Amino acid sequence: MILVTGAAGFIGSNFVLDWLAQSDETVVNLDALTYAGNLENLVSLEGDVRHIFVKGDIADFGLVAGLFAKHKPRAVVNFAAESHVDRSIHGPEDFIQTNIVGTFRLLEAVRAYWGGMEDEEKTGFRFLHVSTDEVYGSLEKDDPAFSETNRYEPNSPYSASKAASDHLVRAYHHTYGLPVLTTNCSNNYGPYHFPEKLIPLVIHNALAGKPLPIYGDGQQIRDWLYVKDHCSAIRQVLEAGRLGETYNVGGWNEKPNLEVVHTLCAILDELSPRGDGKPYSEQITYVKDRPGHDRRYAIDATKIERELGWKPAETFETGIRKTVRWYLDNQDWVANVTSGAYREWLDKQYGA
Ligand code: NAD
Ligand code: DAU
């Protein structure tokens, strides 16, 4: 039995689906179901006794302690977070609450549970914290990619809150001996990605005939990884990672945003051409830049490759094509998540 937090979100739901496709070990899914949490992602698990869903907050010590007492998981994988940089700029409070206070309370509940275990169980227990490359700040054009020894230099309220949570996880290992692991991953893309983030937003807006918003000059660089490859990295770190260590996870796929958007437009031109025969790239629109926008992220994934033998299965070319196909085949999912609350967000962010 493992406890996975935030498993109704984008990466967490992909993780649970992949986990149960490969193992019969039960997953307890603790998720607060914020705007980003969606049980529809897990509809294929309906009636499956290996998936136990609990609606709740990681900051609720009593609830989490009760789940530990009842289910006795051998590991916790913590995905639960506020994850969108632009939302953190409009309203940082939720990010402080979930990413910092929530992680702290979860760690406290884990510490109490782990402290009460027999020695053998204690040795086998793991707390895996899922974090981001954004904690390292922004790279210049010719800087080497982020390695695990890079200094933390977070620049947005989101990345600062994730950095704080990483520090707490580290401290619980050094101070209390808690058996922790941390992964710092680059930008994910793939199925069930909420259409507030660049790739699903562009696919959605393109098909809806709306502008494709490019912040600033569109030359900011992100290092893209197909979500299933992130999930396989987490499974491998959980299985064989060295306690107290951090592992950078990335796909060696650095791309400027504008290139990503042009690639999406070209695939859509081929798979679902516009009615008027014109290219989707005509919808590209330059908009005001994100305040404090990090220019470049890039992950050096040497450590996880060398120590754990992990490698991504998808290239950007194969992964992005699968992703566009998934969105074309799952327009109902998109229609359901682009609700009233979603439209309010678009008004706030893009003045649409
Ligand atoms: P997401 O926003 O899609 O999902 C987050 C999930 O957490 C949602 O289901 C939400 O309901 C849940 N949640 C939020 N607050 C909660 C709380 N207080 N208690 C319980 N559940 C709560 O995020 P994602 O993109 O799937 O990211 C998952 C994790 O991976 C995050 O920690 C994020 O920082 C990290 N990460 C994301 C990326 C990426 O590209 N998306 C890359 C690297 C790391
Ligand atoms: O690097 C890992 C991080 O990647 C994760 O920790 C975050 O949770 C995840 O949201 C993601 O953060 P980004 O800010 O990089 O992702 P986003 O999809 O919001 O933006 C990707 C790039 O595209 C970024 O440079 C901003 C730009 N952008 C984004 C949107 C939504 C645009 O140009 N236009 C847009 O409309």
TrEMBL record:
It holds the Pfam family GDP_Man_Dehyd. Keywords: Lyase, NAD. The keyword ATP-binding does not apply. It catalyses: dTDP-alpha-D-glucose = dTDP-4-dehydro-6-deoxy-alpha-D-glucose + H2O. Residues 3-323 form the NAD(P)-binding domain. Gene3D superfamilies: NAD(P)-binding Rossmann-like Domain, UDP-galactose 4-epimerase, domain 1. InterPro entries: dTDP_Gluc_deHydtase, NAD(P)-bd_dom, NAD(P)-bd_dom_sf, Sc_DH/Rdtase_CS. Its EC number is 4.2.1.46. It is an enzyme of class 4 (lyase). Its cofactor is NAD(+). One of its GO terms (molecular function) is dTDP-glucose 4,6-dehydratase activity. Belongs to the NAD(P)-dependent epimerase/dehydratase family. dTDP-glucose dehydratase subfamily. This is dTDP-glucose 4,6-dehydratase. It comes from Dechloromonas hankyongensis.
